[in-house]
């Protein structure tokens, strides 16, 4: 028996007041629907089918490879949405129904629901949660032996039923055959004219099959996001969950409330992250690093023992023991070697810098291949753009580039070359050579004497 997940993600999300489909709004850097897919895969689902509708093309384009989509042209209720995926429902499958706007659901909870469902042999099991204030939610109604009797919406509930604190999450586990048969009998003869998946529970029980309710979720996990306020609440809860995970795995967050780590990041033990830092995308940070304060690490790799201060690193890699900042900027495709120093107000773009090299301050290194043990003096500019195309420069190992040097690409400096301060280099420099490219100094003695240079009151 395989496990398939059908994820409902067709709603417009009018209350979001956004042109972006609701399920594509991000929580800690990842679209809500992709959080749900991750949880489904963690729970053991072999395939995921996402029901799309409003903004369907955009939703489909953001889904991981291997996820199937079906289209719900008209949004006629949850039962109707599941009907759209009917061709994917096999009699022998266990079908999990999830909601694309519940990003906090966890894989362990879905897995526990499936195990509960199979252990007791239910045809349908509902994931439920206990809430102190269940106002607005459908209530789980149990029989004398605690089996699920039905789900009653609050507007239809009696006074006694409204006192029930166990609520429906909107997530279910069905046996494929039972679900297929129930979908054929769901009707839309209600005030909304919609097909409700909750009706499937009553239909299945009416056929003599059993139903269960698994009170294994927290109110946090089943929280749906319908507006920007709820989106911010989900962001805070997910941020807390992520930060706690890293701290329990040996990462020091000086101020967790002021540290933002997206869900895809990996961080090694004994790394310290200072306040105001953002770790974004699928960044990988090694052990024993120091990050911050005020850093942005976006989809980048930091090897063990790096120290980054007040800097921005985007889609780049920094080797072990290297120091970056303060106020440095590593733009995409920058690869920094081991024990390198990228100092204050240094910008690196699409460049490779070898081990033990340093650019201590106020330089631009763009489209360059810099060797090992190279010194790049203050104010050095790799001039890579002629107004039409970008060109690369190459600097050999153990070279020394003096302050205020311009390297006009394409140009190559051989190993052990020495460039005098203030030079503008337009030609290749052979190894073991000294290059100076500046006008000879002229000094006019006594030039400043005379009436025209005297200070006026």
From TrEMBL:
The record's listing under InterPro entries reads: Bifunctional_GlmU (IPR005882), GlmU-like (IPR050065), GlmU_C_LbH (IPR038009), Hexapep (IPR001451), Hexapep_transf_CS (IPR018357), MobA-like_NTP_Trfase (IPR025877), Nucleotide-diphossugar_trans (IPR029044), Trimer_LpxA-like_sf (IPR011004)
Q: Where is this region: Pyrophosphorylase?
A: 1-228
Region (N-acetyltransferase) residue ranges read 250-457
Which residues are recorded as binding UDP-N-acetyl-alpha-D-glucosamine?
8-11, 22, 72, 77-78, 138, 153, 168, 226, 331, 349, 364, 375
**Residues covered by the MobA-like NTP transferase domain:** 5-138
Main subcellular localisation: cytoplasm
Which pathway does it operate in? Nucleotide-sugar biosynthesis; UDP-N-acetyl-alpha-D-glucosamine biosynthesis; N-acetyl-alpha-D-glucosamine 1-phosphate from alpha-D-glucosamine 6-phosphate (route II): step 2/2; Nucleotide-sugar biosynthesis; UDP-N-acetyl-alpha-D-glucosamine biosynthesis; UDP-N-acetyl-alpha-D-glucosamine from N-acetyl-alpha-D-glucosamine 1-phosphate: step 1/1; Bacterial outer membrane biogenesis; LPS lipid A biosynthesis
Q: Name one GO biological process term.
A: cell wall organization
Catalytic-site annotation from UniProt: 361
Please give the GO cellular component terms listed in this UniProt entry.
cytoplasm; membrane
E.C. numbers: 2.7.7.23, 2.3.1.157
User: Which Pfam families does the record associate with it?
Assistant: Hexapep, NTP_transf_3
The reaction(s) this protein catalyses:
alpha-D-glucosamine 1-phosphate + acetyl-CoA = N-acetyl-alpha-D-glucosamine 1-phosphate + CoA + H(+); N-acetyl-alpha-D-glucosamine 1-phosphate + UTP + H(+) = UDP-N-acetyl-alpha-D-glucosamine + diphosphate
Per UniProt, subcellular location reads as: Cytoplasm
Q: What class of enzyme is it?
A: transferase
Give the note describing cofactor binding and stoichiometry.
Binds 1 Mg(2+) ion per subunit.
Which residue ranges does the record annotate as region Linker?
Answer: 229-249
Q: Does the keyword Nucleotidyltransferase apply?
A: yes
> Record's SUPFAM superfamilies?
Nucleotide-diphospho-sugar transferases (SSF53448), Trimeric LpxA-like enzymes (SSF51161)
Q: Which GO terms describe its molecular function?
A: glucosamine-1-phosphate N-acetyltransferase activity; magnesium ion binding; UDP-N-acetylglucosamine diphosphorylase activity
Annotated function: Catalyzes the last two sequential reactions in the de novo biosynthetic pathway for UDP-N-acetylglucosamine (UDP-GlcNAc). The C-terminal domain catalyzes the transfer of acetyl group from acetyl coenzyme A to glucosamine-1-phosphate (GlcN-1-P) to produce N-acetylglucosamine-1-phosphate (GlcNAc-1-P), which is converted into UDP-GlcNAc by the transfer of uridine 5-monophosphate (from uridine 5-triphosphate), a reaction catalyzed by the N-terminal domain.
Q: Which family does it belong to?
A: In the C-terminal section; belongs to the transferase hexapeptide repeat family.
Could you give the subunit structure recorded for this chain? Answer: Homotrimer.
Protein name, per record: Bifunctional protein GlmU
Q: Which organism is it from?
A: Peptoclostridium acidaminophilum DSM 3953
Which gene codes for it? Answer: glmU
